[in-house]
Amino acid sequence: MSTRALSRRNFLALSGTAAASLVAAACVAPEAAPAAGEGEPMMETIELNHWGFSGPIWESIWEAIPDTYPNMKVNPTEIGDIVFGDQKYLTAVAAGTGPDTALQGRHTFLQFAAKGLYQDITETFDVSDLNQDDFAPVQFDETVWEGKIYGLPWDTDVRFLYWNRDHFAEVGLDPDQPPTTWAELEEYTDKLNIRDGDEVVRYGFVPYLYGNSWMWLWAFQAGAPSLSDDKRTVLCDDQIWIDTLQWLVDFYDNYVGDFESANSFQQGVQSAGLGLPFVAGKTSMSATGSWHVGDLLRSPGVDYGTAPAPIPAGGIKSTWSCGFSIIMAPGSEHPEEAFQVMRWFTGTPGWDALATADVAEAKRTWEREQLEGDPKFWPRLACYLPALEHLEKTYLPELGEIENSTWTLSLDALRNWTHGCGSVMGLAALQYWVEMDNAARNALSKKMTPEEAMLNCKTLVQEATDQAWEAIDNA
Amino acid sequence: MATNTRVQPAPAVAAAQPRPLRGRSGFMAVFRHVILLPGVVFFVIPLVFMVSTSLKALRQIALFPPELIPNPVLWANYPEVFHYAPMHLYFVNTLFLVLPAIFGAVFTSSLAAYAFARLRAPGKNAIFIILLSTMMVPAFVTMIPTYILFAKLRWVGGFKPLVIPYLMGSAFFVFLLRQFFLTIPRELEDAAFIDGSSRLRTFTGIVLPLAKPVLATVTIFAFMASWNEYMGPLIYLSNKKQYVLSLGLQVFTDAYGGEWGLLMAASTMMVAPVILLFFFAQKHFVTGITMSGLKG
Amino acid sequence: MAATTPALSTPTARGFWKSLRGREALSFYLFIAPWTLGFLAFILGPIVASLALGFTRYDIILPAKWVGLENFRDLIADPLFRISLGNTVYIVLMAVPLGMVVSFLIALLLNQKVRGMAAYRTGYFIPSIVPAVASAALWLYLLQPQWGLVNGFLDLFGIKGPTWLASTTWSKPSIIMLMVWASGGTMIIYLAGLQDIPDTLYEAASIDGASWLRRLVHVTIPLMTPTIFFTLVMGIIGTFQVFSVVFVLTDGMGGPLNSTLVYLIYVYRNAFVFFRMGYASALSLILFLIILVLTLANVRLAGRWVYSEVEME
């Protein structure tokens, strides 16, 4: 599990690719003609280097940019991993040879912004026709550090509960009634579990390990804080965290069994890409991200429903989101054009180009895998709300009832009840991830009590956060 | 440059030579297969697994426990790989990295290795330790200083950082080759040397031909290392027209995440040349030193 | 033109380069010149720079700030430093000797004249060729406790297999197994070494009536010592820096519960995940010293057991 597994989709999407022709003007630009000389007005073509994902989808998106800006050309280059490490970008910026724009993960966004790894675009943003209210609020917030804007949010996701309606009917539960509280979740899980002696045939529900929920989801529902308002104090030692972890431990004891066995089951399955437990019917409920609809469209035959994940007594409906933002690197020689690229990419034209490419891709996939029926395309969630509406109008009518209700659920969450993934963790975000994961595993495998585990998390992450602040305060 | 002993590798003769563990009967031949076969099965499974997954649709990969034999067999993954990553272009680019690396291993490194194995000079042992110590610092911490160096040289964005350092040889190969040169009977070179051949001619005319098995080994190592090299191309290359195979593979692990069938098809294509190379290179391992009467 | 006159043994400083020994030394420097040039140009600077960064606080973005020994003091108090070093030492102690023995035995097996040997050799080498993602996926599958083949096999003997990679006890052995299985590189080095042993030696030994085992002990192994020495030294250097295998098997985490957190994952994490490049450099400096001391010890001891055509000076 890994931070990489933060979100399976992101994780998969992440590690990779990106685009852009590296290094700036400083280096010999290989094949491409050298950027045109200085100062010629009008007709000069401005070449920009963008680092992000690579492959035909991304190439076709960037090929569409001259339709809007005839004088611009974007060279995309693979960026490599941008969630768990960001070597290419960091190395290049350290050497002063970064791109013009790049995709960046949201976990580490503030950490990087605070250190000046991204350009402050506040002024350009303010004079542009962009309106902050047009962006999903939480995601926009995650590009802001100390009042300054350091990028534009691009895509995102939300997490909720999926349940298998056939399994529900089979054990006498109402297929239209998902559990809404932790108590119901436990009750349903107990009914849905199938064991053959020691062997687990089917898990009703496995929190934490399966799907993509982590401790964040459950603790946020219980109202747990993660950081003080000034982002200097780590709050993972709050009693709500400890209680949430205790609930997870009890859940394993009562309904899942040994953490190690469940973990090994999961390791042999998910990490290897060998199958998705929910799709394969090995688990009846799963708390995971909105992207999972796409997997289910590819493997038809699962009759499922979606709803907000169950909450504790006195809790609040809540989830969390992650994704990528696009930034301008320090030292870009064409800041104005770079901003236009960012705006275009995160705006409706960019999303339209992406969706067109995605649809073509879905068609290829359906043909290649000889899937029945028409190709189905499940749009990614855009942070720019007008683009989201555009996607909804264009693509949702072609999808079925469950996809439409899930879309509505996702949008509701996105506008009203989600948390971020980076801003909530502050300046030592990845340490926070790693230590929160360690804490959960230590408690679930009975190496520590929940209290010890969370205190340990607090000590380690606080130390890292203090160090990060010290560097900033001294700078 | 008289070699007063016949040291030319003689493959045909070598093959006919009795070898250790020589069998005395048909029974022994069968017995050897009985030992070799089960082992090889265990070692070949990853390949089988990879090829099997490369022929499956995602819904088949999602089954578990996984099924070994794809049903139906989805050949379409293979041609489809080229839509996502032009592997044929990347293949050519990869050769630009591989060939200099092999040159650096076989020529530059062996030259230094010979010196370390045979020649005496002040400071030699200290230099040898320095050579070894270049392998002891993790690449993660030298990456940024190295990158800054190449950025100052304006080499970033092209093949130079991935080619020129490799042409200069590498500590691993120097050390490996040195160990092999140590075992070559010294009399062979001494004779040539005393006959008036220069050091360099002795080296190229006598030592290198004798070292064929290890040079084959070194070639394979150098080939594999640069064939699979990922981090260097990732940070130094800046244009998809320059991409190498390892970067091409990235398309399947990332942006198209979860396309395991395509990933495995691409991996199979990437591995096939290495397997072929090994298959054909391994026969050079048997053209060892077959001189007679020198030692023993 | 080669010296046909014996060298005089007491050359003056000026005369030295004209003497036989001097000419030999000159040849030495010329032979290593290309490598030396590469070393001075591309390797030395970055190594010195990165080790020096160990005495700074450097977060890649802001300029490095000299902090003297602070990183090393932090390191002494850092439990993950101890854990990662301990895990690594465990893996080195197990994987290096096991890898050497298994590879040696396989090389002996593959050093025969058998029909189809090319295919056998290729087969045994395959684990070293297949990309790490593919072999990691395979191992996760093989070691899956409920339906994996390994526990299925143990089940035949009525043994209930452990949970392997999910168990803090068995995770390191699982990784060692994978490393040994993929040590085809060592295997071909041995194979090349075995091929270098003149057949005449075996013939002579056979005539003397030596058994296979005696030939192995008295002919093969002594002549293989330079190769064995190489694999030992490189095994230590390489295994202390084990990374990719663990990274792909544990999704970069070194889990469960840090039981496979090896040294280089910790270095990587500090450098590129936590952006504490100064600390990562300090960790690297410690690792460098450990490996250097072990290597020096190996080189010192080599004279006692490694066969050479040249006496060690």
| CATH architecture descriptor name of the largest domain in chain A | 3-Layer(aba) Sandwich
First-to-last CA distance of chain C: 27 Å
Oligomeric state as shown = heterotrimer
Largest sheet of chain C: 2 strands, antiparallel
**CATH class call of the largest domain in chain A:** Alpha Beta
Biggest interface reads: B-C, 119 and 114 residues
| CATH first level of the largest domain in chain C | Mainly Alpha
Fraction of residues in H or I helices of chain A: 40-55%
Structural class of chain A: alpha+beta
Gyration radius of chain C, to the nearest Å?
A: 25 Å
Helix content of chain C: 55-70%
**Beta-strand content of chain C:** under 5%
What is the molecular shape of chain A?
globular
Give the averaged pLDDT of chain C, no decimals.
86
Please, could you describe this protein's structure?
The complex is a heterotrimer of chains A (475), B (296) and C (313). Chain A has 475 residues and is an alpha+beta fold. Chain A contains 19 helices and 16 strands. Chain A has helices spanning 8-14, 56-63, 65-68, 87-94, 109-114, 122-127, 137-141, 165-170, 182-192, 214-221, 239-256, 259-271, 292-298, 335-346, 348-368, 385-395, 401-417, 429-444, 450-474, and strands at 46-52, 72-78, 101-105, 144-145, 148-149, 152-153, 155-156, 159-164, 194-196, 199-202, 285-289, 304-307, 319-320, 324-328, 381-382, 418-419. A five-stranded mixed sheet of chain A has the order 2-1-3-14-6. A three-stranded antiparallel sheet of chain A has the order 11-8-12. The longest helix of chain A has 25 residues, at 450-474. Residues 1-41 of chain A have low confidence and may be disordered. By secondary structure, chain B is mainly alpha-helical. Chain B has two domains: 24-74, no CATH class; 81-292, MetI-like fold (Orthogonal Bundle), CATH 1.10.3720. Helix content of chain B is 67%, strand content 0%. Chain B has 15 helices and no strands. Chain B has helices spanning 11-16, 26-54, 58-61, 77-84, 87-118, 124-133, 139-152, 160-167, 171-181, 186-194, 199-210, 212-228, 231-236, 245-253, 260-281. Chain C is an all-alpha fold and 313 residues long. Chain C folds into two domains: 2-53; 78-305, MetI-like fold, CATH 1.10.3720.10. Helix content of chain C is 69%, strand content 1%. Chain C has helices at residues 13-16, 20-31, 33-52, 70-77, 79-110, 117-129, 132-142, 149-156, 171-181, 184-195, 199-207, 212-240, 244-249, 263-273, 277-305, and strands spanning 56-57, 65-66. In chain C, strands 1-2 form a two-stranded antiparallel ribbon. In chain C, a hairpin with a 7-residue loop joins strand 1 and strand 2 (65-66). The longest helix of chain C is centred in the first third of the chain and has 32 residues, at 79-110. The radius of gyration of chain C is 25 Å and the shape is flat. Classes of the chains: A alpha+beta (475), B mainly alpha (296), C mainly alpha (313). Chains in contact: A-B, A-C, B-C. The A-C interface holds A 1-5, 84-87, 90, 93-94, 111, 115-117, 199-200, 260-261, 263-265, 267-269, 271-274, 428, 430-431, 434, 437-438, 441-442, 445, 447, 464, 467, 471, 475 and C 57, 59-62, 136-137, 140-141, 143-148, 163-168, 250-253, 255-258, 268-269, 272-276.
